[in-house]
Amino acid sequence: MYIKYIFQAILVTVIFCFWWSCKSNQSLFSKNKPAHQEYAERIEKAGLQSSSIAKQWMGAAAKSLKQPVSITIPYAEKGFFDQAQPRAAAFRFNIREGELLNFELKAVADSAFLFFAELWEQKDGVTIKFLAESDTARKIRYEAKNDAILILRIQPELLLSVEYHIRLWTAPSLAFPVRVTDQPKISSFWGADRDGGIRKHEGVDIFAKKKTPLIAAANGKVTRVNENNLGGKVIFIRPNDKPYSLYYAHLDSQLVQAGQQVKTGEIIGLMGNTGNARATPPHLHFGIYGSNGAVDPFPFINQERKQPAPITADLHNLNKYQRAKTDLVVYSQPDIKSSVLSKLAAGDLVFTEGAVSDWYRVRLNDSVPAFVQDHQLTKSIWKKQVLADSAILFHRATANAHAIAKLKKGARINVFGKNGKYLYVGDESVKGWMEINERGLSK
What we know:
The protein is mainly beta. It has helices at residues 2-22, 35-45, 52-66, 298-301; strands at residues 69-70, 75-81, 89-95, 99-108, 115-122, 128-133, 139-143, 148-156, 162-172, 185-188, 193-194, 199-200, 204-207, 213-215, 220-228, 232-239, 244-254, 261-262, 267-271, 283-290, 293-295, 320-324, 328-331, 340-344, 349-356, 359-363, 370-373, 377-378, 383-386, 391-394, 403-407, 412-419, 422-426, 431-435. It folds into 4 domains: 2-172, Jelly Rolls (Sandwich); 180-301, Glucose Permease (Domain IIA) (Distorted Sandwich), CATH 2.70.70.10; 315-378, SH3 type barrels (Roll), CATH 2.30.30.40; 383-435, SH3 type barrels.
């Protein structure tokens, strides 16, 4: 059995060493295909798709997209991928139209390597659409074209052990239309009632002193400078390469002309209270209009964005089994206010895949990934026992797992925890899973 796996590993290594030596050639990857897909296709062309390790790698990639863990942006995680256990990780989160998603990955391995990071959109709960992949700096910048559910998948190449650190955060895709030094304040948001509830507010109102300079929120072309009953003195700007227009209303003065090109930060007018704002303090009504009408401009300009929380969970516990110290709950996100996915009894084991602030992203056997607070887990020995009979150790806590060792009668073993009808046990030389109902454990 071991010869079989050794042979497969050698075969994969030989072929991919050759593949690696050629990958500096720019024609290796198609411009029309994600790098991960191209890599998988080359595995098949090399005739390796039936090997155990290639199957695990491809299976992990597919499964991660079907079972992504739910997160909230901003998010940061540190983890470790082991070449002996091919895995992938996928993260599902919400994003608002107009937000700019930023992703960066830092990884450490023994040599040059490939690390795939891809962004997908989940369309209907099942269907996914490829959006983008990381560049040579292992970064992704993606401007959301609509409110959406996105999935980020990460996976290193085959036969690679690598530490990684990922960070996800959002930023506004446009500049704020009033300079920060002028101390602007938003006091009326999208959707607020207007005219006694007859209509809804189609923008945000930004207040500051009268004649405060207003600036272009993007590079673009001024398409209209005029006056109307509601907005008073108004300006429309069409940002370059964008499918929408920016609307500035209630201006005291307009300092640009239709057809003029403007740059981000350039002064285009002065704040006032013209139009139907004559009875209100001076403010800018800022709106965004696309082909389907007005959209909420706040995600486009909101400057108050949090950064990911620092990671304090012990990184030495990554890629290891840990035991629940007491009965506890497993959460859908690293937040005690998130939904409860399941419960663990004292002694139950989970596999720690990633560290997030003071939480661990864990997996219990083949279940959906989830989160547990770091202080609730331990990898210390649970019990010490003597085998009353010989026993077989398996590599996983499942009925179809292959045997990895046989322990002799009378052997002194450490019990680290349990998973259903299996115990995770071992001595100084080997660790594995053993059925609880076997006669091997002494009373």
